[in-house]
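Sequence only, no structure available. Ideas?
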Amino acid sequence: MATKEKFSDVWDINHPWVEKYRIPVIDVYDPRYYYFAALVIPDETLESPIFKFVMPTEEEAKLFGSYITYRISQFGFREGYVNKIRSEKLDVDPGVNTISFAKHEVLGWCYKRATWETGPFPHYGTSIRFATLVEAMDHCESIGGKPSEDWEAWKTENNLR
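Reply:
I predicted one. Tokens follow.
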């Protein structure tokens, strides 16, 4: 297994999901960089973590990587700029409102947008928890209480359920 290396708020820049799915694997809820989406995973070196987050499955990581691609597609960037974003190890843009997702061992999936300042800690804005990652993403991509048409189309095109 590769050695863990801290890179700013990316907990493990050598984590296989960084390269395989372009997922920022972080251990903070408010990352300093503007990721399209980031995944909070447990640091097993902590003796008594406050929140009992668990490692997502490989299938969930694959879904998460697809979600990052979807988020990039929703900004209407020029192809050249998308290529520039994708040429880096992780996808970052200074205008994005980062969404951090975490999987709790009992409560399920939760998320936090970088701009949320109030609400239940650590994932402000909503106390709702979701049984699956797709349910959490559906809530994230909701307009008027139901998932957006673009998100529904993406899920269908990419067989995400």
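The helical segments are 16-21, 58-73, 79-87, 133-140, 149-157.
Hope that gets you unstuck.
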